[in-house]
Amino acid sequence: MVNSEENPNSAVSGISTGVIGMQDPLYLAPGDISGLHLVSAPFNGKHYVKWSRAVKMALISKNKLGFITGCYPKPEETAATYQDWIRVDYNVLCWILHSLIPEISESLMYVTTSKQLWEEIKERYCQANAPFLYQLRKDVMQTIQSDNQSVADYFGKLKSVWEDLQSLDGIPDCECGAMSKCSCTLLKKMLERDNRHKLIDFLMGLDNKYETVRSQILACDPLPTINQAFFRSTD
After folding, report:
1. Which of 36, 158, 174, 235 has minimal Cβ neighbours within 10 Å of its Cβ?
2. Sequence spans of domains, the chain
């Protein structure tokens, strides 16, 4: 029998449920302590979209995103992995709580799973989506290349706004698995449409001295990707 304090991948009860591989969501690395901070600056109630994206990226790196999305749900109490799942989920819950300022985390202490915690935070602080979405759309329309600005700097500024839009109002993820069986390439078409929108945004904001390049790009069939268009504009 292995003591749970010595082996981070043993069950809460102290009884090991078997060896857990590093690729398993139930695996905890030696540094995955409950007091871990997922982000450098704790969430203070503002800029929810950027904070949530940073937390998701941190959880993806630890193979734990499925705990908050529901893709890795709680098993039945009779399952061999039940205690391990509870232990890891509590770790994820603690990580998120430590990524909040005390005033917010204290009001969420009695949430029982990381998924419930994540949904509670989203419900509280993602209510102001409409004004933020309006501002981001406005920012896209108003982002143009200034006289002394390089194409790279202009593209980087525009790309930052696109990423915020993607986090707030991007193409939703398929959680039922139906998209993987889709035979009409719907996802591909949606991504192509998204690329077209970004391409037009980029070309509209280019300085007039790039008019020839802009016309050449628009004459392409099919249209290039946004990254290809950026490369052609920097030649």
Report:
1. 235
2. 1-126, 129-233
